[in-house]
TrEMBL record:
Residues 1-119 form the CMP/dCMP-type deaminase domain. Its cofactor is Zn(2+). GO terms for biological process: riboflavin biosynthetic process. This is Riboflavin biosynthesis protein RibD. SUPFAM superfamilies: Cytidine deaminase-like (SSF53927), Dihydrofolate reductase-like (SSF53597). Binds 1 zinc ion. Substrate binds at residues 186, 206, 209, 286. It catalyses: 2,5-diamino-6-hydroxy-4-(5-phosphoribosylamino)-pyrimidine + H2O + H(+) = 5-amino-6-(5-phospho-D-ribosylamino)uracil + NH4(+); 5-amino-6-(5-phospho-D-ribitylamino)uracil + NADP(+) = 5-amino-6-(5-phospho-D-ribosylamino)uracil + NADPH + H(+). Pathway: Cofactor biosynthesis; riboflavin biosynthesis; 5-amino-6-(D-ribitylamino)uracil from GTP: step 3/4; Cofactor biosynthesis; riboflavin biosynthesis; 5-amino-6-(D-ribitylamino)uracil from GTP: step 2/4. Its EC number is 3.5.4.26, 1.1.1.193. Gene3D superfamilies: Cytidine Deaminase, domain 2, Dihydrofolate Reductase, subunit A. Keywords: Hydrolase, Metal-binding, Multifunctional enzyme, NADP, Oxidoreductase, Riboflavin biosynthesis, Zinc. NADP(+) binds at residues 150, 172, 198, 202, 288-294.
Amino acid sequence: MSRAIEIARNGLGPAAPNPMVGAVLVHDGQLIGEGFTSPYGGPHAEVNAIGSVADKALLKKATLYVTLEPCSHFGKTPPCADLIIKHKIPSVVVGLLDPHEKVAGQGIAKLRNAGVDVITGILESECRDHHKRFLTFHEKKRPYIVLKWAETADGFIAPDTTERNENPEPYWISNSYSRQLTHKWRSEEQAILVGTNTVLEDNPKLDVRQWTGKNPLRVVLDRKLRINGDYHVLDGSNPTLILTEIAEASRYYEGIDYRILDFSKDVISQICSILHEINILSVLVEGGAQTLQSFIDAGLWDEARIFTGTSSFKKGIAAPHLSGKIVASTPIGLETLKIHYND
């Protein structure tokens, strides 16, 4: 099961909104096949694992280890439970039951009804952590929310406005290694979210140009539609969703998706509902300070990744404040990256 979790991580990003499942086949103590979830729309982990076995006759005496309950319904691909039964695999070990309403125990029931010996709950906590995006989406009806920012040694997220250049551009606190890591993170989440001020001040592209992988959906809070076509987020290069209170379609840019928010009510909950509605399993919130603090104050965040640099601003925009369990602290050059979980 540990190996199944390990290879499953290869699906982080491309597999979404499917879960990134890992599957391993063992015969007589020897690994004979393994696989992980293909990019969305492609074969599931069980299909890839079975397909990797050179001698299919061994499947009738093999044990399949899988991080999540095999599916029992027709989606973009046929049910994995049916494939397991077809190949007469006698034993299946499952890490975690699938909370998806179309599965939810039905895959295991189908296997047992066909005479397959099924064991569940193996490395369950590790599998839950691995599948945290998928589980949050289906159990809490919202995406898994990752907050990210860089702050100076004296606790500022951005310099005083008088320190900025005349043209909008990022003012880097983190080093090049941290920035590349951030681009890797972007490739792993389905969406990236920023507020109006971040766009107006930094003019970010919000893509993965320093890494390989799929660009996330750009989600921008723009209450009054202050952002114009001079900014990268409206260039049409990547899918973009603008959340606004303005319902005048004549002000919308072609090729950009717009959704209406009621800013007099709980904005963060509305954002979570919209992202859940459009099947977004996870979102990376990159700021600025007001947007990040809004998620923190609402209690709607799961993980925070905070870079602390060596520079000092002495004045500027203060970094957000949060409490949570620090689960990791890693040096990146002269900087420190701390990972917090919302406990």
